[in-house]
Amino acid sequence: MIFLYGGGRDASVYREVYDPFLAALPPSATVAFVVVDSVADGLERWIAAVGAAGSVPVLVPPGGTLDVAALGDADALFIGGGLTPAYADAIVPVAAELRTWLDGRVYAGFSAGAAIAASAALVGGWRSGGFEICPEDSAEDLDELTVRDGLGLVPTTIDVHATQWGNLTRLMAAVREGRVPHGIALDEHTAVSWSPDGTATVLGRGYAHLVTPGLNVVSHAGGSSFSVAT
């Protein structure tokens, strides 16, 4: 199973969004936590927020590449947030090896970790052809809308911080322009769990906004399920 989180740091919501992830794991499971950063603060924050029985912290420095062997025999993988292009640089080059490691395990991605889970990963940008498509603060240090190869774990593109950062319109632009066939923009404090049969179930307080061709947008609230035609 796959869990994709749209961001958010309100501790009062943590149990609501992270407990379903923990419930998908064996008892007393160990989770490998991966953060791309120069300091370990983010690792400590996500380990505390998720509350797994055991943890394997893996810090990948900017410019480095994830060593899949460092994940050991953990029961699940949780990839944290930060600058999305940096996560793509560090983790997508080992996508095939990582997919092999994930066989029979559970994946969770928060913000950047959610965005790179897609086959076609929307990693940033705030303009398309010079026209603004979302706030500049959402750019991820990129100017033009940028779609790159992702991990190939889910067949639809993911954008995050949808309502809070105005990123729904960025995903709409990517679909409108044919850069991606469809996608889901996740609000903060909201997640989708992705089942092997392709069903997405919404968790948390916000919405998962499904964008399909023709710029059809359907916003799914927590507790609802939907599927994406591929």
Automatic annotation (TrEMBL):
The keyword Hydrolase applies. SUPFAM superfamilies: Class I glutamine amidotransferase-like. GO terms for biological process: proteolysis. The keyword Protease applies. One of its GO terms (molecular function) is serine-type peptidase activity. Keywords: Hydrolase, Protease, Serine protease. Belongs to the peptidase S51 family. This is Peptidase S51. It comes from Virgisporangium aliadipatigenens.
